[in-house]
Design goal:
This protein is an alpha+beta fold and 260 residues long. The protein has seven helices and twelve strands. Helix 6 links the parallel strand 10 and strand 11. This is GNAT family N-acetyltransferase.
Length: 260
């Protein structure tokens, strides 16, 4: 895989050419910025920018004005190769708070290591109804220690509006949810996005995460995706590297919360 070429393709297809990630969302290009605006429980933020030192601060101020005018918390998704080089410092100076750095990892679907099956006694099932969405949210809260009410509403909206492009899966030990993950598909896109993969503490180290990656890779291939992309944490990066994913750049969420 030509890393530079694939990263450029990712920027063009999934960032500059971003499409709405759910019902009611709107993606628009404003000058050198591509942003998504949607309801308060959806994802609001900047997905791509092409800025210089002369216009970066004005573009930042424009996005703050847009989202605060709607009373929306929003994220500026900054990648390690974005310009200007000091864009992160400018965002902090404007009132954004950076989150943890992650690694953008991409693999060719056909180049992944052979998938593993879940361990004995564990089965992978698709999420097709409200109860399943509730179980995904419950796993998310146990694994990441954060409130999953926004995730729950987002998944329900996607499941209702377009179930073929919002694939969530659960790993069940008996009837107990022990792991969950999502696959985001954009019709016609060459990239499928892996999101939210996590396993509860007592079930880690048994290959469940690998099994969920393999399951979603098969679904992505069935939908015509050539690549899979992940914003990987430090914990998941070594697992993904062993599966055949390559680290292409970093990504950091910069979050702006309007004053009450």
């Amino acid at each position: 895989m030509d890393h530079a070429a694939v990263l450029a393709l990712f920027d063009r297809d999934m960032r500059e050419g971003a499409r709405p990630d759910g019902p009611g969302a709107r993606v628009e290009r404003v000058g050198g910025v591509v942003r998504q605006t949607c309801s308060a429980h959806g994802w609001n933020g900047v997905v791509w920018s092409a800025l210089g030192t002369a216009d970066a601060d004005a573009a930042i101020a424009e996005q703050i004005a847009h989202f605060t005018g709607l009373s929306r918390e929003f994220e500026w998704k900054l990648y390690g190769h974005d310009l200007p080089a000091d864009l992160g410092q400018r965002l902090v100076a404007a009132g954004f708070t950076p989150g943890p750095d992650e690694t953008l990892m991409i693999a060719e679907v056909d180049g992944l290591a052979p998938g593993t099956e879940p361990p004995e006694g564990v089965r992978v099932v698709p999420v097709t109804d409200r109860a399943g969405v509730g179980q995904v949210a419950g796993v998310h809260e146990k694994v990441f220690g954060t409130d999953a009410s926004r995730l729950r509403r987002h998944l329900l909206d996607r499941l209702t509006a377009d179930p073929d492009t919002a694939v969530a899966v659960l790993a069940l030990a008996g009837e107990e949810p022990v792991s969950a993950a999502r696959l985001e598909l954009v019709p016609g896109a060459r990239f499928g996005g892996l999101w939210g993969g996590g396993t509860v503490r007592d079930w880690r180290g048994r290959g469940i995460y690998r099994a969920l990656v393999a399951h979603r890779a098969r679904v992505a291939a069935d939908h015509g995706c050539r690549y899979l992309q992940v914003d990987a944490s430090a914990h998941s990066r070594p697992i993904l590297e062993r599966l055949g994913f390559a680290a292409l750049t970093t990504t950091t969420p910069y979050v702006y919360v309007p004053a009450p």
